[in-house]
Automatic annotation (TrEMBL):
Residues 96-117 form the DUF883 domain. The keyword Membrane applies. Residues 71-98 form a coiled coil. Keywords: Coiled coil, Membrane, Transmembrane, Transmembrane helix. The keyword Lipid biosynthesis does not apply. Residues 1-26 are annotated as: Disordered. This is DUF883 family protein. The chain crosses the membrane at residues 100-118.
Length: 120
């Protein structure tokens, strides 16, 4: 009995009063320790789960931000490409108007080359 009181007093002084103390009955002590460990494992599992939730929320937020940035960048790139294509179209149209015979000859030559390449 004196051992159990001394063990409890030592646990109370060290701040670990939630841990089961020794009662002298080995079977009961082991059961109490196992029960205590199960409780600690449950707390640990909950802490890990909460940390995982926080990390997942962070990752989702970062993915949303990055997605918006990529969408904005791709829209800007697409607008630039459209402007370049419009400029090329204007240049080709101007060239065709200035030199219609040369344009027809060039188109015929390109068509002939494509026909040769597709035959093989």
């Amino acid at each position: 009995m004196a051992r159990a009181t001394a063990a409890r007093t030592k646990a109370d002084v060290s701040g670990a009063s939630d841990r089961p103390g020794a009662t002298g009955d080995i079977g009961a002590d082991v059961e109490a320790q196992i029960s205590h460990l199960k409780g600690e494992m449950a707390k640990l599992a909950e802490a890990v789960s909460n940390a995982g939730s926080v990390i997942a929320t962070d990752v989702k937020g970062n993915a949303r931000v990055r997605s918006r940035q990529l969408r904005q960048t791709s829209q800007e790139t697409l607008a630039d490409l459209r402007e370049q294509l419009d400029e090329i179209e204007r240049q080709v149209s101007g060239h065709v108007r200035e030199r219609p015979l040369a344009s027809i000859a060039a188109a015929a030559g390109v068509g002939f080359l494509i026909a040769l390449l597709t035959r093989r």
